[in-house]
Amino acid sequence: MRRALKWAMAVALIASASACSWHPPYAVAVADETRMGRCEPLGTVTAIADMGALQIHPMYHYDAQNRALMQAEMMAATHVVWLGEHYFAAAAAAYRCPE
What's the order of all strands across the beta sheet hosting 29-30? Predict the structure, then answer.
């Protein structure tokens, strides 16, 4: 009984740890400004990561970029062009390009 409980707790711990650092693949592609000539500009997306105290955990290093990509996806953008990207803040121009 105790052994089964230990295994269940270990599996639950591993599953929760891996879920925290996983980001779904985004439908938004990163491109450069020169290829956006035929695309419709949708606006600018910005995000700031909540770093709180000094964070060293890799999960927080690219949180701002992930949040910006998520915002662009919610705008139905197909591409973004990074205007500025750091581990704590990101800004991108969002575009919708024809298929």
Answer: 29-30, 79-85, 89-96, 40-48
Residue 45 forms beta bridges with which residues? 92
Long-range contacts for 62-71 (Cβ within 8 Å, ≥24 apart)? 62/87, 63/87, 64/88, 64/89, 64/90, 65/90, 66/23, 68/92, 69/26, 69/28, 70/26, 71/45, 71/47
pLDDT at position 17 is 47
> 92, 73 in Cβ contact below 8 A?
no
pTM reported for the whole predicted model: 0.67
